[in-house]
Each structure stands twice: as structure tokens, then as C-alpha cells.
Amino acid sequence: MKVIITKNYDEMSATAARFVLAHLWRKPDLVLGLPTGETPIGAYERLVQAHKKGRADFSRVTTFNLDEYAGLSENDVDSFHHFMDHHLFNHTNIKKKNIYLPNGRARDRNAECEQYEAEIRDAGRIDLQVLGIAPNGHIGFNEPGTPFAARTHVATLSEHTRKKNAKHFSGGEVPSQAITMGLGTIMEAKKILLLAGGAAKADAVVATVEGRVNKEVPASLLQ
Ligand code: GLP
């Protein structure tokens, strides 16, 4: 594991965007795993700028997002799909058919999980998986206690997570469940880039990088 410490959020975002671009230039048909949250917004802005300047062609890129809230579709402003459209997809030339997120509105959620796994498999391995991390150490929506081998599954969100994410909700309650790539799925990516910033994440970062690998800190598996 390589740790890169940056001066501030801007430098972290620029470093992350450069890292993604370097992979895209090397492999134009990159399979990219993507997170939502406040953390990656600066990096997404820079990827959009790079595209506008003609330095980033997403026409052959395939993306797989980590997760989606149960019950929400891309038309819901609170969905992760909407977040991704707004911050990245709508401003690049990525093809809609190459964008994958779990379908939060699927009637049979377990079948949707299996289908998502199959879609990732069919794309070959994820070349680069970008991650954020929550203050409780979760990645995707793999809350503390999630088995390390977990595949894409329906996760029940902790109260801590629902409270934290409520500030991004325009109305109504944060759903109690989500469909998330599992830790085992995430670990199959060829490379993983985790972004973290702010004092609220400090303990989670220390536990992830230097702590004992244990299920209570899902991100510690990255060691
Ligand atoms: C959510 C997402 C995670 C994300 C985390 C942190 O719960 N499921 O993928 O890493 O929040 O979000 P933020 O970057 O806003 O702190």
C-alpha cells in the first residue's frame, strides 16, 4: 500500500484525477470503479475539465459504481445515479450503455445483486477502483462487521451512516437499505485508490492503514 499525503483537498483531488487520467491514457477502454460522496467531487470536476480540454476521452470507458440506495432510481435527485450524472457522466462522452450502477428499484434485489456481479465479470476485472471511506471505516456500503468475502449484496445501513448521509437528502428519510458491491468484489479490482480527507476521517484512516486487519474496520482489508 502506498500512502500519498497531500496539503489539502485541492491537491488530493488533482492527484487523484491525474492518477485516473494516467490509467485512461494507458488503457482507453478502462474499466473504472467509482464512488459517490463529497470526497471525490473535486477529482470528478478535474476529470470533466480534462475532457473539455480534449485530454480525456471516455468513449470506450466502462464504469461500475459501488452502490445505490434501495428504492431510488436515476430519476430521484437523491440517488447515487443522479449524483454521478450531475458530477461526471453528463459532462463527458461516456456512453450510457457503459455506465453501471445497481438498480435500486429492482423488484428482486437479490437477483439484481447477482446480475451486477455478472456484469462486472463480463467486463473483465475492474482496472481501477476509486473509493471513499466513511468515518466508521465503511467502503461502498460495507458497514462494520461485513464479511471480507462478501459479494454484491443488500446492505442494511447503520444509524450512523443514515444520519451522516441525511444532510445530502433533499427530502424524506435516508433509505434503510442499499445495494453495494461487496468487499470481496472490491478486492478483485486490479488497483484501488482510496481518497480520504478531513479530521472526521482521521481515525478511520489510521485504523485502515496501520491498524489490525479486522471486520470492524472494513477498509482495513485493503492492507
Ligand atoms: C457513502 C458512500 C461511500 C462513501 C462515504 C463517504 O456512505 N456509500 O462510498 O465513501 O459515504 O462519503 P463522503 O465522501 O461524503 O464523506
Characterize the structure shown.
33% of the residues lie in helices and 13% in strands. It is built from seven helices and eight strands, in the order αβαββαβαββαβαβα. A five-stranded parallel β-sheet has the order 4-2-1-5-8, with helices on both faces. The longest helix is centred in the first third of the chain and has 18 residues. Bound molecules: 2-amino-2-deoxy-6-O-phosphono-alpha-D-glucopyranose. The site of 2-amino-2-deoxy-6-O-phosphono-alpha-D-glucopyranose has 14 residues, from α5.
The gist of it:
This protein has 223 residues and is of the alpha/beta class. It has helices at 9-26, 41-52, 80-87, 109-122, 159-166, 183-187, 202-209; strands at residues 31-34, 62-65, 67-69, 99-100, 128-131, 153-156, 177-180, 191-194.
Characteristic terms for this protein:
single chain; 223 residues; alpha/beta; three-stranded antiparallel beta sheet; 7 helices; 8 strands; 33% helix; 13% strand; binds 2-amino-2-deoxy-6-O-phosphono-alpha-D-glucopyranose
What is the total tally of β strands? 8
Relative helix content:
25-40%
Give the termini distance in whole angstroms.
Answer: 7 Å
Bulk shape:
globular
Topology readout:
Blueprint: H1 9-26, E1 31-34, H2 41-52, E2 62-65, E3 67-69, H3 80-87, E4 99-100, H4 109-122, E5 128-131, E6 153-156, H5 159-166, E7 177-180, H6 183-187, E8 191-194, H7 202-209
Bound molecules: 2-amino-2-deoxy-6-O-phosphono-alpha-D-glucopyranose.
2-amino-2-deoxy-6-O-phosphono-alpha-D-glucopyranose binds next to helix 5.
